[in-house]
Amino acid sequence: MKNVLITGASRGIGRQTAIQFAREGYNVIINYNKSKAEAESLAKEIGGFAVKADVSDETQVKNMVDTVCQRFGFIDVLVNNSGIAQQKLFTDITTEQWHKMMNVNVNSMYYTCKYLVPEMIRQKQGVIINISSMWGVAGASCEVHYSTSKAAVIGFTKALAKELAPSNIRVNAVAPGTISTDMCNFDQETLDLIKNDTPLGKIGSPIDIANMITYLASEKAGFITGQVFNVNGGMVI
Known about the structure:
Mean pLDDT: 97
Structural class: alpha/beta
Strand content: 15-25%
Oligomer: single chain
Distance between the termini: 37 Å
Order of helices and strands: EHEHEHEHEHHEHHE
């Protein structure tokens, strides 16, 4: 049985992704930071394993990786899903907010890969899937720090994919559009405007992203690496 570690898996896209992997027969490791009750409830529901770690903290990531590897052995699939968002004028972004965005959205991805990739190289196998955003592709007004962090995810993905390909490790990114989760905290008027701007005329669901992630982890995607998959209803092409 294969093992998957999903960061930020207690809610939203991460939660649905955990459910989908469990349906595919994986041992699912559910990382969380503050949402203990949600993570433990999900673990009970799908027979997964919840593990606490602030993935923006390198020491906590190392301890998490040590814990899950001792319990499960090799981690076949890593999904770097943990992330935060914020809407703010560039001139109002504080230095602290800038660094927090980069720590959570970019550094966390580096830390998990730092401690899991060496064993993937030794095993000559592994899949890494990083969650970006359509605003990492196109950029968004009033979200400069968020857009920058998600663009960094794309650059990291493309570069690491080339470096790890000779070791039979695939690295891809998924760039969601507007998805109905806790992070999508817009009022109804704004949601209606987003729907009107989206060619498919609707807000996405976490399962839309989870389906893409589980596909990329499967052998069906065995010849795909270094790619960014836009799942956004046609809003950004």
